[in-house]
Design a protein that fits this description.
Blueprint: H1 3-26, E1 50-52, E2 57-58, E3 61-62, E4 66-69, E5 77-79, E6 84-91, E7 98-103, E8 109-113, E9 115-118, H2 120-133, E10 138-140, E11 148-149, E12 154-158, E13 168-174, E14 180-181, E15 197-205, E16 211-212, E17 219-221, E18 223-225, E19 230-233, E20 236-249, E21 263-268, E22 271-277, H3 289-292, H4 295-301, E23 306-307, E24 328-330, E25 336-344, E26 350-359, E27 374-377, E28 383-387, E29 390-394, E30 403-410, E31 413-416, E32 427-432, E33 444-449, E34 455-458, E35 460-463, E36 466-471, E37 475-481, E38 487-490, E39 497-498, E40 504-510, E41 516-523, E42 526-527, E43 531-533, E44 538-542, E45 552-561, E46 566-574
Parallel strand pairs: 19-26, 20-26, 39-46
Antiparallel strand pairs: 1-4, 2-3, 4-13, 5-12, 6-7, 6-10, 6-11, 7-8, 8-13, 9-12, 13-14, 15-17, 15-20, 16-20, 18-19, 20-23, 20-24, 21-22, 21-25, 25-26, 27-30, 28-29, 29-32, 30-31, 31-37, 32-36, 33-34, 33-37, 35-36, 38-40, 40-44, 41-42, 41-45, 43-44, 45-46
Length: about 575
């Protein structure tokens, strides 16, 4: 053999080896067998019971972890699921509340959220930073030597902080790209022997000539229960591009919470047609939940129907193995079709729906035109309108799809359709404040007005004579004014009282118009840390911080609302030094 032939063979071998490694790295590595199964342990020391599953459908986002029950109590010990170091600590009034992030040598990060407090050495580290910054809300990024932890070490105690709806531990596992992964893929075990629930099923016409039972509108289908977690729908007819949607939940052992499923798939006349699996997603795509679900149905009836087809323009990575985006193309009048929809939890328990469809005749009339008062707004173009003092801009690609919107204005109120169509980017509402000249413009804000008449503050900024708000919610907005300062009420002490036996100092703060923006507390002129829980309106100072050391103490608290109204509260209390 010549040298050139051997060289060519060597090159072919290297290319084959490289291709094999690439396929192994980016293909096979995503299977369950290639993921670490014995690396992470349970973060609680009792049997795990879920109140929330990975990928579960939530308001404007997919749930990024597991919600672990803590017997309706706070204070359960939280253990490091693997050895590593604390790489991030975030404390906020809303969202995750008190959250701890641990990075592990294998590149994964575990997250523990809605905590009550951290373990003593971590708590000491955090408190020192909070006092140095004179702020309860804080975000820290310790280096890899500052707070190392061992697997099974107590790192925190479960709580109900932030946006939590009750005591529990929110637990996540993220990959090296900070993408949340389903912890059940990585060896976390949850008993589950119950098949998913099937609540509703709906058929959708997806183009202008499509019909369901002769009508140009989506229709709920009648569900007929069969045996062994199987269902069928009453037969129906359809023409054109058709989609199917299902309202489903899963229930796990020892809990009646209605959680999210793991996988949904369809077949069309016996061939695989669509699949969505909740394994992993990135945070920048989670807003596509509003396109995955029937958004209008959810807003009207508070139930989520998931589309078993891929909506136009969706970049959601949870989809796979779909043909024609999962849409049924019914253009052969008189033909019959069988569609099956299979709903599955992580343990393989399934519920199946059989759907019989007859391809009806092509409709003789096109879709009825929209009402004259509606304005067509294209998703791929920016739209701006000026009405009275309002100028509203819906940026390019703020809408997921083209839409017909009802837009009108009256006095200091603008109606931007209804909250029945989702936005994936903020629209901009500007209001010319020239008509308010001579008044204190800083007290004005833009409020969202609900259909039942309640008003909610939207974060607004005033520049020159223009008041501006950014929002992702269509609906009615009005110019409002707030001149009422917050209220401050002591809870567990009175002015001049001895409180040597108190472990805490508690104060209630409230603002009924725009809400609390900031607060600051001092004792004898020295900053003290007070934790704020917006769910109970409580500010709490813990005396074991060791900051209050004098016998006679003058407390001062200043609370400010979102438009700058402030209230000062002063009181004296005494403690044994």
């Amino acid at each position: 053999m010549g040298a050139s032939y051997l060289y060519a063979m060597h090159r072919h071998y290297l290319c084959f080896l490289f291709l094999y490694l690439v396929l192994f790295r980016f293909g096979v590595s995503q299977t369950n067998e290639q993921l670490p199964q014995d690396y992470f342990i349970n973060p609680l020391d009792f049997e795990l019971i879920l109140s929330g599953t990975f990928g579960e459908l939530r308001s404007n986002h997919f749930h990024s972890g597991l919600d672990l029950k803590t017997n309706q109590r706070t204070g359960a010990k939280v253990y490091a699921a693997a050895s590593g170091y604390v790489s991030r600590i975030k404390i906020e009034h809303y969202g995750y509340g008190k959250a701890l992030y641990i990075t592990h040598p294998n590149g994964y990060t575990t997250v523990y959220a809605h905590l009550e407090k951290f373990s003593p050495r971590i708590e000491e580290y955090v408190r020192s930073k909070q006092y140095a910054n004179e702020s309860y809300e804080i975000q820290l990024y310790p280096d890899d030597l500052a707070l190392r932890v061992d697997q099974g070490e107590v790192v925190a105690y479960s709580g109900n902080s932030g946006g939590s709806g009750g005591p529990h531990l929110h637990f996540e596992i993220r990959d090296s790209g900070s993408r949340p992964m389903n912890p059940l893929l990585l060896g976390i075990k949850i008993p589950d022997n119950r098949a998913p629930l099937v609540k509703q099923i709906k058929a959708y016409p997806l183009n202008e000539n499509a019909t369901i039972n002769g009508k140009y509108e989506a229709q709920l289908l009648r569900l007929i229960p069969l045996k062994d977690n199987k269902f069928k729908t009453a037969p129906f007819s359809a023409y054109g591009d058709i989609g199917i949607g299902v309202n489903t939940n899963d229930r796990l052992d020892r809990a009646n919470n209605q959680n999210g499923i793991y996988k949904a798939s369809t077949t069309w006349n016996g061939r695989s047609h669509f699949e969505i699996t909740f394994n992993k997603f990135s945070f920048d795509e989670t807003h596509y939940i509003n396109q995955l679900i029937d958004f209008e149905h959810f807003k009207r009836y508070k139930s989520r129907i998931s589309k078993l087809f891929i909506p136009q323009g969706s970049a959601l990575s949870l989809y796979n193995n779909s043909i024609g985006n999962g849409k049924l193309q019914l253009y052969d009048p008189g033909s019959t079709h069988i569609v099956t929809a299979t709903l599955e939890d992580f343990e393989g328990n399934t519920s199946t729906i059989f759907i019989d469809i007859t391809n009806e005749e092509k409709p003789s009339l096109e879709t009825p035109p929209p009402a004259d008062e509606l304005t067509r707004v294209a998703a791929n173009q920016s739209y701006t309108t000026t009405m009275g003092g309002f100028t509203v801009t819906i940026p390019k690609n703020a809408l997921y799809e083209d839409a017909f919107l009802a837009i009108s204005q009256s006095s200091d109120t603008v109606k931007l359709h209804e909250d029945l169509i989702p936005l994936q980017k903020n629209m901009v509402i500007n209001y010319d404040m020239s008509s308010k000249q001579g008044d204190d413009l800083s007290k004005y804000y833009i409020a969202r007005v609900t259909p039942w008449g309640a008003s909610y503050h939207v974060s607004s900024r005033l520049k020159a004579n223009t008041l501006t708000a950014f929002t992702k919610t269509l609906g009615t907005y009005a110019i409002s004014k707030d001149v009422t300062p917050p209220q401050i009420t002591p809870v567990n002490f009175k002015d001049g009282q001895w409180i040597s036996n108190n472990k805490t100092l508690k104060v209630k703060i409230q603002d009924n118009d725009t809400g609390i923006s900031a607060y600051r507390a001092t004792v004898n002129g020295k900053f003290i840390l007070m934790e704020y829980d917006y769910k109970t309106d409580l500010l709490v100072h813990y005396f074991d911080d060791g900051v209050v050391t004098d016998t006679d103490n003058d407390l001062m608290i200043i609370v400010t609302d979102e438009v700058g109204n402030s209230t000062k509260f002063e009181a004296n209390f005494k403690r044994k030094s």
